[in-house]
Amino acid sequence: MNIKKMDNNQIKGKILHKLLRAGKIEASHTAIENLHKGFPKDMAGKVKDNVKELVKDGILLEKHTIYGVQISINIEHSEKIKEYIRIFLMQD
Question: What is the rounded CA–CA span in Å between residue 7 and residue 45?
Fold first, then answer.
């Protein structure tokens, strides 16, 4: 798998897969800065843009705290989440 050739849907799938494996659903959050880990450093901007899209679409929930923005999965969008993860896992 060549991470640098991932399209936006595959990037979203990798982000959601990572959060799901870590159990970051609804009330369990992680820092937004953690989401680019596992991607090459030069893809940080692209990851950030995709996170913003997922938040805008309601798939990710933001929680603003005194120590920064925290992110978790909104389980109400489980079908779309499964679709993104499937796209990520099915890539070459």
Answer: 14
